[in-house]
Amino acid sequence: MPKKLRKLFLFVLTVIFVVVGAYLFLTASGLVVNWKNWPHLSITKTGDIALKFSPAEAQIKINQKPYHVNRGLFPGDILISKLTPGDYQIEIVKEGYQSWQKTLKVKPAEVTSATHIRLFTSSPSWQSPLSEKIKDFWLTGEGLVYQTKKDELKFNQFYLKGNKVILSSSQSKLIITADTFDNYFLTNLEKPATAINFNELFTSLREQLKSADSSLIKKTYFHPFSPTKIIIATTNAFYALDVEKIKLEFLTRAAQFKTASISSSELFFINKKGDLNIFNLVLKTADIKALHLQNISFLKIAPDGTEIGFLTSEGEFLIFNRLNNELKSLTKEIKDFYFSPEGKRVFLISLNNKTFIFYLDNYETDNYKNSAGDILTIDFLQEQTFGQFNWLSDYPNNFLILADNKLIVSETDPRPPLNWQVLESGVKKYSFADGKIYLLKEEGKFLQGNEIFF
C-alpha cells in the first residue's frame, strides 16, 4: 500500500474513532446532538418517557412507528430512555381495542410520564339475560330487580310488592319498594317471598320510643357501616332501624329539614334556618354550622368528608370547607356536580349543558399540574342532554357519562388529544359494578356488558 494511502487510511480511522468515541461518551453521559434545529446544532441532555397501560399486551407506536421493547416482570410498565428533547406522538394499540393517543413533550434530564392509560374495547360484547322488555332496573347484592312494562317488580321468578323501588344498593340484600299509595315494603332478597310493611313497622317502633314526632317517612338511606340498618328521615327527625333486631334508634332532631346526605360516618342536613347540621353516626354527637343558606336544592359530601358542596335552586354552586370553616361561592348556572374520588376535583354540568372540571385543590399527576381554581373544559361534551355520571374509582382519571343517550367513557388527562369513546348508543340508563356495565336501552332491552374494562 502506498505511503500516502496508508496515511489517509490511518487519518480516516482516527476520525471515525474520535467521532464514534465522542458519540459513545455523549450517549453514556445522557447527552445527544440535537438535530431538530438544523443547521443550528446543539448538545443537550436526553429525556425519558414512562408509560403504564392496560391491557399490558398492547403495543407502542412512537411518531407512527412501532416501538419494540423487552417486557420484564411488569409488562405494562415501560421506560423509553435517551430521547432527544421535543414532542413525540405516542400511541398504544391492541387489536379489538380503541387506541390511546397523546402528544408528550420530552424535556432534558426529565421523565415525562403517562401512567393512567386504559384501553377500552372498540366493540363491547353485550349479553341479553332477559327475554322481555322492561321499564327500569336496579342492581342489588342478590342480583337484578327490574320493573316490567306492566309496572310489576320482579326478582328472579318472584314478584315483589309495590311498583317502584325506593331504596336499593348493589352491596345490600335489602330493598324498599312502594306502591301507588306510598305504602313502603321492606324485603330481604334472601327471602323474596316475604315483605314487611315498612310504614307500619316504623310507626309501631316509634310509638315504643314515645317520640313526639308523628310525621311521615320522607327519605330512607342505607347506613354507611351497619349493613343491617336503614336510616329513616321524617320531616322532623332521623332514626336508625336495625332490620334484624327489629329495633329503632332515635338519632337527632331535624325540624323541617330541607335536604340531607350521608358520608362514610356522618349525616349532614340543612335545617329550616339554612344551617348545616352534622351528626356523627359513630360518636352520636351533633354539630351545627350557622351558614344561613337559602334555597338549597341538594348537597353532596367529598369522599374525605372535609368539603361539602351545595347547589341552590338558582344554580349557584357553593363549597364549605370544614378545616378552615369557610364557605365559598365557586360558580353559578350549575345543574349538577360530582366530587372526584380523591376530592380535589369536581365535575360540573351547567344549566346550558356545558361540562367542565373545577380543581378545588392543587392536583398533580403524570407531569401535568393544575392549581386550585383551574378549570378544564370538556370540549366534546357541550350542548348535549346529560344523564348519569360516574367517576371510575379504580381509574380516577376516567369517567362515564350518559350524553344524548350515548354512554361515553373519557379520560381527564388535559394533554392533547383527549381520549374518549362511545360505548353504546340509545341508552336510557346504566349501572356500573364489578367492572361490568348494565344497560337499559331506550326500546326497553336490558343488556349486560362482559367485563368491558378488561
UniProtKB/TrEMBL annotation:
Pfam families: PEGA
SUPFAM superfamilies: WD40 repeat-like
Record InterPro entries: PEGA, WD40_repeat_dom_sf
Domain PEGA: 78-114
Protein name per the record: PEGA domain-containing protein
